[in-house]
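User: Design a sequence. Structure:
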């Protein structure tokens, strides 16, 4: 028998969430889907587009849809101006720039409770935190709903 020396394995990184506000409410998106926060000074309107599609924006040569997900979440649509702050999310090869009000910060994805019906079926849980709970958004479901609405 030979004794093997076990080297310590690096700890798996703690999953985190990006916290944002939409319509005065707190939401969270898993960091693995969040690419960046951008401010679009301009975007191109799309004639006859669904209400949620504010337009198309150029993100360093890549065209991404700029969408207002508030109605999907049961909130009033945004009164968007030509300047739009967005959280760019991506699942697989499907990107979207989600219109947001503000970025609150990053927090560990711990103390996750089951969804309590908020988010109109687009929440996958509640992130319990000291400053108040945040609805964890299901990015896959949101992107699928947006893709389905386009057809």
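Assistant: Done.
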């Amino acid at each position: 028998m030979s004794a093997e020396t076990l080297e310590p394995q690096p700890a798996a990184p703690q999953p985190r969430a990006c916290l944002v506000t939409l319509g005065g409410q707190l939401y969270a998106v898993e960091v693995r889907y969040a690419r960046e926060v951008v401010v679009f000074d301009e975007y191109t309107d799309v004639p006859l587009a669904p209400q949620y599609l504010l337009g198309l924006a150029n993100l360093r040569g890549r065209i991404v849809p700029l969408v207002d997900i508030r109605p999907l979440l049961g909130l009033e649509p945004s009164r968007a101006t030509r300047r739009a702050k967005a959280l760019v999310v991506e699942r697989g090869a499907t990107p979207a720039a989600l219109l947001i009000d503000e970025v609150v910060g990053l927090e560990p994805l711990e103390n996750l409770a089951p969804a309590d019906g908020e988010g109109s079926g687009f929440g996958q849980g509640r992130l319990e935190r000291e400053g108040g709970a945040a609805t964890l958004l299901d990015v896959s479901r949101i992107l699928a709903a947006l893709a389905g609405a386009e057809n």
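The chain has one helix and eleven strands. The chain has a mean pLDDT of 85.
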